[in-house]
Specification:
alpha+beta; three-stranded antiparallel β-sheet
Length: 218
Protein backbone atom coordinates (compact mmCIF):
# COMPACT_ATOMS: atom_id res chain seq x y z
CA UNK A 1 0.00 0.00 0.00
CA UNK A 2 1.51 3.33 -1.05
CA UNK A 3 1.70 6.38 1.24
CA UNK A 4 -1.28 8.20 -0.34
CA UNK A 5 -3.58 5.20 0.10
CA UNK A 6 -2.38 4.78 3.68
CA UNK A 7 -3.12 8.43 4.47
CA UNK A 8 -6.55 8.21 2.82
CA UNK A 9 -7.32 5.05 4.80
CA UNK A 10 -6.30 6.70 8.06
CA UNK A 11 -8.54 9.67 7.26
CA UNK A 12 -11.51 7.34 6.90
CA UNK A 13 -10.72 5.37 10.05
CA UNK A 14 -10.04 8.49 12.14
CA UNK A 15 -13.14 9.05 14.33
CA UNK A 16 -15.01 12.33 13.90
CA UNK A 17 -14.96 14.96 16.64
CA UNK A 18 -17.30 17.68 17.79
CA UNK A 19 -16.16 20.94 16.19
CA UNK A 20 -14.84 19.22 13.06
CA UNK A 21 -15.99 20.45 9.64
CA UNK A 22 -17.17 17.62 7.38
CA UNK A 23 -18.58 17.41 3.87
CA UNK A 24 -21.81 15.60 3.12
CA UNK A 25 -24.28 15.01 0.31
CA UNK A 26 -27.90 16.12 0.64
CA UNK A 27 -30.12 13.02 0.70
CA UNK A 28 -33.34 14.44 2.09
CA UNK A 29 -35.18 17.60 3.10
CA UNK A 30 -38.02 18.16 5.56
CA UNK A 31 -40.07 21.22 6.52
CA UNK A 32 -37.38 22.27 9.00
CA UNK A 33 -34.54 19.81 8.47
CA UNK A 34 -31.92 18.69 5.96
CA UNK A 35 -30.31 15.22 5.95
CA UNK A 36 -26.75 14.60 4.74
CA UNK A 37 -24.90 11.43 3.83
CA UNK A 38 -21.56 11.70 5.66
CA UNK A 39 -20.12 8.46 4.31
CA UNK A 40 -18.49 6.29 6.96
CA UNK A 41 -19.50 8.77 9.69
CA UNK A 42 -23.19 8.08 9.14
CA UNK A 43 -26.17 10.34 8.47
CA UNK A 44 -26.11 13.96 9.52
CA UNK A 45 -28.98 16.31 10.21
CA UNK A 46 -29.33 20.10 10.29
CA UNK A 47 -32.47 21.02 12.21
CA UNK A 48 -33.90 23.13 14.99
CA UNK A 49 -32.04 26.35 15.73
CA UNK A 50 -29.29 25.41 13.28
CA UNK A 51 -31.82 25.03 10.46
CA UNK A 52 -33.45 28.40 11.06
CA UNK A 53 -30.08 30.20 11.35
CA UNK A 54 -29.16 28.97 7.86
CA UNK A 55 -32.60 28.58 6.26
CA UNK A 56 -31.85 31.06 3.44
CA UNK A 57 -28.90 28.94 2.31
CA UNK A 58 -30.60 25.61 2.98
CA UNK A 59 -33.77 26.36 1.01
CA UNK A 60 -31.79 26.46 -2.25
CA UNK A 61 -30.15 23.06 -1.73
CA UNK A 62 -31.14 20.13 -3.92
CA UNK A 63 -30.75 16.38 -3.47
CA UNK A 64 -27.18 15.48 -4.41
CA UNK A 65 -25.67 18.87 -3.51
CA UNK A 66 -22.42 18.86 -1.51
CA UNK A 67 -22.44 20.77 1.78
CA UNK A 68 -19.78 21.55 4.40
CA UNK A 69 -21.08 21.61 7.98
CA UNK A 70 -19.70 21.58 11.52
CA UNK A 71 -20.33 18.68 13.90
CA UNK A 72 -22.06 19.87 17.09
CA UNK A 73 -23.22 16.47 18.41
CA UNK A 74 -21.85 13.06 17.39
CA UNK A 75 -25.14 11.27 18.00
CA UNK A 76 -28.53 12.62 19.00
CA UNK A 77 -31.44 10.60 20.39
CA UNK A 78 -32.44 9.55 16.88
CA UNK A 79 -28.94 8.36 16.00
CA UNK A 80 -28.09 11.26 13.66
CA UNK A 81 -24.93 13.37 13.69
CA UNK A 82 -26.09 16.90 14.48
CA UNK A 83 -24.61 19.53 12.20
CA UNK A 84 -24.42 23.30 11.87
CA UNK A 85 -24.12 24.99 8.49
CA UNK A 86 -23.88 28.52 9.90
CA UNK A 87 -21.03 27.65 12.30
CA UNK A 88 -19.08 25.97 9.46
CA UNK A 89 -19.64 28.93 7.14
CA UNK A 90 -18.47 31.32 9.85
CA UNK A 91 -15.32 29.33 10.59
CA UNK A 92 -14.42 29.05 6.90
CA UNK A 93 -15.07 32.79 6.46
CA UNK A 94 -12.59 33.64 9.24
CA UNK A 95 -9.99 31.34 7.64
CA UNK A 96 -10.48 33.08 4.28
CA UNK A 97 -10.14 36.49 5.93
CA UNK A 98 -6.91 35.39 7.61
CA UNK A 99 -5.53 34.29 4.22
CA UNK A 100 -6.46 37.64 2.68
CA UNK A 101 -4.72 39.52 5.49
CA UNK A 102 -1.58 37.38 5.20
CA UNK A 103 -1.45 37.98 1.44
CA UNK A 104 -2.09 41.72 1.99
CA UNK A 105 -4.87 41.63 -0.62
CA UNK A 106 -7.37 44.36 -1.43
CA UNK A 107 -11.09 43.63 -1.09
CA UNK A 108 -14.20 45.58 -2.05
CA UNK A 109 -16.88 46.22 0.56
CA UNK A 110 -20.32 47.79 0.42
CA UNK A 111 -21.01 50.38 3.11
CA UNK A 112 -24.08 49.23 5.07
CA UNK A 113 -24.15 51.79 7.84
CA UNK A 114 -22.23 54.35 9.89
CA UNK A 115 -21.78 55.58 13.42
CA UNK A 116 -19.76 58.41 14.94
CA UNK A 117 -16.67 56.22 15.01
CA UNK A 118 -16.66 54.92 11.47
CA UNK A 119 -18.27 52.80 8.75
CA UNK A 120 -20.09 49.47 9.08
CA UNK A 121 -19.99 46.64 6.55
CA UNK A 122 -19.87 42.82 6.24
CA UNK A 123 -17.23 40.61 4.62
CA UNK A 124 -18.22 36.99 3.88
CA UNK A 125 -21.09 37.54 6.30
CA UNK A 126 -18.78 38.72 9.11
CA UNK A 127 -19.55 42.19 10.61
CA UNK A 128 -16.70 44.58 9.79
CA UNK A 129 -15.76 48.07 11.00
CA UNK A 130 -13.78 50.76 9.21
CA UNK A 131 -12.72 53.44 11.74
CA UNK A 132 -12.74 57.09 10.69
CA UNK A 133 -8.98 57.20 11.24
CA UNK A 134 -8.53 54.45 8.60
CA UNK A 135 -10.38 56.28 5.82
CA UNK A 136 -8.30 57.56 2.91
CA UNK A 137 -7.41 61.28 2.98
CA UNK A 138 -9.95 62.09 0.22
CA UNK A 139 -12.76 60.40 2.16
CA UNK A 140 -11.86 61.61 5.63
CA UNK A 141 -14.66 63.93 6.90
CA UNK A 142 -13.05 67.36 7.25
CA UNK A 143 -15.24 68.75 10.01
CA UNK A 144 -14.41 71.85 12.04
CA UNK A 145 -13.94 71.33 15.77
CA UNK A 146 -14.43 67.58 15.36
CA UNK A 147 -18.24 67.88 15.66
CA UNK A 148 -19.30 64.23 16.04
CA UNK A 149 -22.79 64.84 14.65
CA UNK A 150 -21.36 66.42 11.50
CA UNK A 151 -18.86 63.55 11.19
CA UNK A 152 -21.76 61.08 11.35
CA UNK A 153 -23.66 63.00 8.67
CA UNK A 154 -20.59 62.95 6.43
CA UNK A 155 -20.10 59.21 6.94
CA UNK A 156 -23.75 58.42 6.21
CA UNK A 157 -23.22 59.72 2.67
CA UNK A 158 -21.10 56.61 1.99
CA UNK A 159 -23.98 54.18 2.70
CA UNK A 160 -24.61 52.03 -0.38
CA UNK A 161 -21.25 52.88 -1.95
CA UNK A 162 -18.30 50.50 -2.49
CA UNK A 163 -14.85 51.06 -1.01
CA UNK A 164 -11.59 49.25 -1.66
CA UNK A 165 -9.95 48.26 1.60
CA UNK A 166 -7.44 46.01 3.30
CA UNK A 167 -7.83 44.01 6.49
CA UNK A 168 -6.20 46.01 9.27
CA UNK A 169 -6.82 43.61 12.17
CA UNK A 170 -8.91 40.54 12.93
CA UNK A 171 -9.62 38.32 15.92
CA UNK A 172 -12.06 35.41 15.40
CA UNK A 173 -12.36 34.76 19.15
CA UNK A 174 -13.39 38.34 19.80
CA UNK A 175 -15.30 38.40 16.49
CA UNK A 176 -13.40 41.56 15.58
CA UNK A 177 -12.76 42.55 11.96
CA UNK A 178 -11.18 45.98 11.40
CA UNK A 179 -10.67 47.36 7.89
CA UNK A 180 -8.49 50.13 6.49
CA UNK A 181 -8.94 52.17 3.34
CA UNK A 182 -5.92 54.30 4.20
CA UNK A 183 -3.56 51.28 4.09
CA UNK A 184 -3.57 51.06 0.29
CA UNK A 185 -2.84 54.81 0.03
CA UNK A 186 -0.04 54.49 2.56
CA UNK A 187 1.57 51.73 0.51
CA UNK A 188 1.39 53.77 -2.70
CA UNK A 189 2.98 56.72 -0.93
CA UNK A 190 5.70 54.50 0.55
CA UNK A 191 6.50 53.12 -2.90
CA UNK A 192 6.86 56.63 -4.34
CA UNK A 193 9.01 57.77 -1.42
CA UNK A 194 11.24 54.70 -1.57
CA UNK A 195 11.78 55.09 -5.32
CA UNK A 196 12.27 58.84 -5.50
CA UNK A 197 13.29 60.08 -2.06
CA UNK A 198 15.82 59.45 0.65
CA UNK A 199 16.04 60.42 4.31
CA UNK A 200 17.14 64.06 4.57
CA UNK A 201 15.49 65.23 1.35
CA UNK A 202 13.33 68.34 1.57
CA UNK A 203 9.97 68.05 -0.20
CA UNK A 204 7.05 70.40 -0.70
CA UNK A 205 3.41 69.47 -0.21
CA UNK A 206 -0.09 70.80 0.16
CA UNK A 207 -1.98 70.44 3.45
CA UNK A 208 -5.26 68.72 2.60
CA UNK A 209 -6.66 68.30 6.09
CA UNK A 210 -5.95 68.92 9.77
CA UNK A 211 -7.39 66.61 12.44
CA UNK A 212 -6.87 65.88 16.14
CA UNK A 213 -4.12 63.32 15.54
CA UNK A 214 -2.17 65.19 12.85
CA UNK A 215 -2.34 66.60 9.34
CA UNK A 216 -2.76 65.19 5.84
CA UNK A 217 -0.32 66.44 3.22
CA UNK A 218 -0.37 65.77 -0.52
Amino acid sequence: MNMKKLIDKNKIIKPPKVGEIVEGTVIGKGMASVFLNLGSIGTGIIYGKEFFEAKNELKNLKIGDKVSAKIINLENEDGYVELSLSKASKEMAWKKLQEIKEKNELIKIKVLGANKGGILSRVFGIPAFLPVSQLSPQHYPKVENGDTQKILQALQKFIGKELEVKIFDLDPKEEKLILSERAKEDEKIKDIILKNCKVGDIVEGEITGVVDFGAFIK
